[in-house]
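Supplementary Methods. Inverse-folding protocol.

Structures were first reduced to a discrete structure-token string of length 248. This string, shown here, constituted the complete conditioning input.
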């Protein structure tokens, strides 16, 4: 499903849905469980993308890539589009993309680079609002354990509720080899054992739909930011939001 199509699902009053989630969390207290993805849900990864593309440009003498800014990553995770937006012509993009992709893979999924992430608008305040209800906040991310230190550092810098504080946990893949889809499905069983899952937040349509199927009584929220590009239709019950501002 295209980004524009997903964004078109956002309806007026979506902030009321978030307020309702907080109210339900207050009523249930520690029994309530709220699950949050990180990338493109609570974190904007584009500064990390910018750093990597700039460094690739510097390493290969591609001056336009050295001028990369966040706005050049306007089409989600599409590096080819970002390279064109920076000023490379289509032939240059095709010639350099395979090496740029390999350069990216060596860096993107590391603690050293994920510290560049910034928070989605209102995300930090909303995580603290969740913790303030007494509910359990569980970050469920496809990041692997090797990224834990950088992830927590970025959380702290961005002001998010930190794992280990009150009833807040961070669930990560054991290694980079595991499938994100499989890991998140396995994590659902762990969430169900913690209490009553009343809300789940993710940007990836596949993961959002899995939450909706596994926890039909929960309010499942889709962040209409960006996603992997897989052509997956969101289930009708899923609610799309652009960010977390305007709730409190």
């Amino acid at each position: 499903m295209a980004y524009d199509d997903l964004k078109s699902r956002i309806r007026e009053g979506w902030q009321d849905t978030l307020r309702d989630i907080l109210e339900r969390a207050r009523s249930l207290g520690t029994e309530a469980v709220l699950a949050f993805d990180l990338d493109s849900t609570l974190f904007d990864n584009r500064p990390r993308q910018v750093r990597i593309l700039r460094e690739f440009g510097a390493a290969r003498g591609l001056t336009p890539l050295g001028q990369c800014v966040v706005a050049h990553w306007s089409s989600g995770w599409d590096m080819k589009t970002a390279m064109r937006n920076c000023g490379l012509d289509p032939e240059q993009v095709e010639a350099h993309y395979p090496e740029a992709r390999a350069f990216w893979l060596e860096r993107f999924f590391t603690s050293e680079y994920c510290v560049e992430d910034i928070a989605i608008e209102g995300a930090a305040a909303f995580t603290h609002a969740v913790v303030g209800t007494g509910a359990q906040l569980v970050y469920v991310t496809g990041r692997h354990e090797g990224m834990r230190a950088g992830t927590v550092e970025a959380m702290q810098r961005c002001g998010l509720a930190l794992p280990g504080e009150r009833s807040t946990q961070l669930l990560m893949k054991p290694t980079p080899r595991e499938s994100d889809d499989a890991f998140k499905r396995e994590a659902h069983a762990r969430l169900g054992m913690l209490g009553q899952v009343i809300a789940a937040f993710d940007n990836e349509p596949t993961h959002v739909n899995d939450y909706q199927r596994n926890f039909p009584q929960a309010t499942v929220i889709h962040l209409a930011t960006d996603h992997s590009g897989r052509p997956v239709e969101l289930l009708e019950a899923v609610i799309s939001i652009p960010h977390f501002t305007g709730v409190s």
